[in-house]
């Protein structure tokens, strides 16, 4: 079979550009996958800081936690501090799971708080600003800090005092 030189050149160029395009595509996809994985693990961490702290203490969440948390949200659907009902509401353990694993599924030990931007009621009031700390008086404090923003909470003397003495 005879192939003329221009045709052969064209074929070689086409093959080369196909290989380069393929290489670029796979590299881009690998980057995207890495970014997606990072985002996903960050999201999971945000969603369940309690499980993260518990794991640090060598404890795992009960397989029933998901349904108990859902049931709690049916009873108490909004952040008790601000009434927020969006996707950033979270079910918090008043007595922390890593110290009281027996109270993990106890309804009275659960309270709904939010991690909505500019409010951060879960972190600031449920954990006094540090995920491995906690606030056993969160029910009373939810009333004291009712509808306050993160900035207002951080400026509040009562909160500052509590934060300095946090467990
Ligand atoms: Zn919590
Ligand atoms: Zn809130």
From TrEMBL:
Keyword entries, A-Z: Membrane, Transmembrane, Transmembrane helix
Pfam families in UniProt: HNH
Lineage, uppermost ranks: Bacteria, Bacillati, Chloroflexota, Ktedonobacteria, Ktedonobacterales
Example of a GO MF term: nucleic acid binding
Keyword Transmembrane helix: yes
Top-rank taxon: Bacteria
Species in which this protein is naturally found: Reticulibacter mediterranei
Keyword rRNA-binding: no
InterPro entries, A to Z: HNH
Identification of the protein by name: HNH domain-containing protein
TM segment ranges: 6-25
Residue intervals of the HNH domain: 79-115
